[in-house]
């Protein structure tokens, strides 16, 4: 029985890898703005929570502040976010989303929805929830289950 489970897991790994590649290909085909997932996460974070310091963005994305600098420079240069002085600490900067950034975020959300429909539209709501629950379970620490 363990051998069957092991073979099924190997097969699952191949399927998940194929879905990941298909998702990346769909994203690249539809991604007119040239944003990565991290760019969208930054825009989404700023849209939902307002102005943030680069360190808060780094904490949210689990990257270094240097990584945030690299990611945000593209967004700043494109006019999607602006760097301003922090309201209470004049020595610190903060980042805010612009109207252009809000429009780009809306466009990116539509692209994500289109990809999700392409990849998972044939599944029922129950199947999607089951798939989500299974993958979430796989992310748990095995020592805590």
TrEMBL record:
Q: Which PANTHER family match?
A: HTH-TYPE TRANSCRIPTIONAL REPRESSOR YETL, TRANSCRIPTIONAL REGULATOR, MARR FAMILY
Top-level taxon in the UniProt lineage: Bacteria
SUPFAM superfamilies recorded? Winged helix' DNA-binding domain
Q: Which UniProt keywords apply?
A: DNA-binding
The identity of this protein, by name, is: HTH marR-type domain-containing protein
A single Pfam family, by name? MarR
Q: Which species is this record about?
A: Lysinibacillus piscis
Q: Which ranges carry the HTH marR-type domain?
A: 5-140
């Amino acid at each position: 029985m363990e051998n069957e489970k092991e073979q099924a897991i190997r097969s699952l790994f191949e399927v998940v890898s194929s879905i990941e590649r298909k998702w990346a290909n769909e994203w690249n085909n539809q991604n007119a703005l040239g944003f990565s997932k991290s760019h969208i996460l930054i825009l989404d974070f700023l849209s939902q929570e307002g102005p943030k310091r680069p360190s808060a963005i780094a904490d949210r994305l689990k990257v270094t502040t240097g990584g945030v600098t690299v990611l945000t420079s593209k967004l700043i240069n494109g006019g999607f976010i602006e760097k301003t002085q922090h309201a209470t600490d004049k020595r610190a900067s903060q980042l805010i989303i612009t109207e252009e950034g809000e429009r780009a975020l809306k466009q990116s959300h539509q692209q994500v929805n289109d990809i999700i429909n392409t990849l998972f539209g044939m599944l029922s709501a129950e199947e999607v929830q089951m798939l989500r629950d299974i993958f979430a379970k796989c992310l748990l620490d095995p020592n805590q289950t």
